[in-house]
Design brief:
Blueprint lengths: L5 H25 L6 E5 L5 H18 L3 E5 L6 H8 L7 E6 H10 L11 E17 L7 H10 L5 E4 L5 H12 L5 E4 L4 H8 L5 E5 H9 L3 E6 L14 H4 L7 E9 L4 H14 L3 H8 L4 E2 L4 H21 L6
Parallel strand pairs: 1-2, 1-3, 5-6, 5-7
Antiparallel strand pairs: 3-9, 4-7, 4-8, 4-9, 4-10
Helix pairs in contact: 4-12
């Protein structure tokens, strides 16, 4: 009589264990979500992070029959909120809004951000990007970026940029303009964009890079004048404003993008489910309109394209920040 080798039994037991585990994972995914899901915006209410969280959270709640509740957690720029989700259980019930700021720029701004965007997170989908528009006082003695740069070189230290503080897109763009253009410009930090506009209109600040959606009100009312948009293509709601690249005097392009991310090791079945639901949500004209807010560009990227874009941005921005002298804290 042939005896069955003990290793065979061990192999069978291993296979059974794997099957049991897979069955449990699949059952969990099929049952998902069976309780409220948290979407964390790593910022105060208002702004791009909050908008993406609320628009997609409301739609996913409608589609999936469970509440996707929004939590705003600011602190350390976008560090605190992003760190919170990086350390959260990888179970599909903890999602963070990821954007250019917390997933790419922070890698060049901080020596120890407390997370790695590529190894600690899985990108679900990137859904929208926004350009910045360079605006200035109406009484400035120039009307183009080329003329502005010539004026700055002829009058070193005379022009200043309002910024919303280190780490913000406004600060990064002003720093890049100063560094890449080799200009002697003063950067004036503010706590938020609204104080900058008060001083722009009051004649105490010269120039400001801000989210294109926010600048439109001031441009349409004629209170400020535009110089350029930071995106690769002109903004659809202001086609008369050239891009920085089109000016021919500075090689600079930047868009602030947003999407949803989950902690690494979130089960693949749950990741796939969330991606499918986000894709469905993004087909809604109402969702697209709310995310665009006039100047936004809807992103339609598959999983491979999403991962490639994230890797490219994480590599690009820290390197570029170093070239203009922005050092890590």
């Amino acid at each position: 009589m042939n005896r069955i080798h003990p290793r065979f039994f061990a192999l069978c037991q291993g296979c059974v264990s794997i099957l049991v585990l897979l069955t449990a994972v699949l059952a969990h995914a099929q049952d998902y979500p069976n309780k409220p899901v948290r979407i964390l915006a790593p910022s105060a209410s208002g702004g791009g992070f909050d908008l993406v969280a609320r628009v997609l959270g409301a739609k996913l709640s409608e589609q999936m029959g469970r509440q996707f509740f929004i939590e705003n957690r600011s602190g350390g720029g976008t560090l605190l909120g992003t760190q919170t989700i990086a350390r959260a259980p990888a179970d599909g019930y903890h999602i963070v809004v990821g954007g250019l700021s917390n997933m790419a720029l922070n890698m060049g701004l901080y020596k120890q951000p407390g997370y790695d965007p590529l190894s600690d997170f899985i990108p679900l989908r990137l859904v929208v990007s926004h350009s910045y528009t360079l605006v200035g006082r109406n009484d400035l003695p120039f009307n183009t970026v080329k003329e502005m740069m010539s004026y700055a070189r002829a009058h070193p230290g005379k022009l200043n940029f309002g910024t919303s503080g280190p780490g913000t897109g406004q600060y990064i763009l002003a720093s890049l303009m100063r560094g890449l253009g080799k200009l002697d410009l003063e950067l004036v930090p503010y706590k938020g964009a609204q104080p900058v506009y008060l001083d722009l209109l009051g004649g105490r600040v010269d120039l400001f890079f801000d989210n294109s959606t926010t600048t439109r009100t001031f441009l349409e009312s004629g209170q400020l004048k535009p110089f350029a948009v930071s995106s690769r293509e002109r903004a659809p709601d202001a086609p008369q404003i050239p891009t920085l690249l089109e000016t021919g005097v500075i090689d600079l392009e930047m868009e602030t993008w947003f999407g949803l991310f989950v902690p690494a090791k979130t089960p693949a079945a749950i990741v796939d489910r969330l991606r499918k639901e986000i894709d469905i949500a993004m087909q809604s004209p109402d969702v697209r309109k709310k995310l665009q807010q006039g100047s936004g560009r809807i992103l339609q990227l598959n999983t491979m394209e999403t991962e490639a874009m994230l890797k490219s941005e994480v590599s690009k921005w820290p390197r570029l920040l170093r070239t203009v002298g922005i050092t890590q804290e």
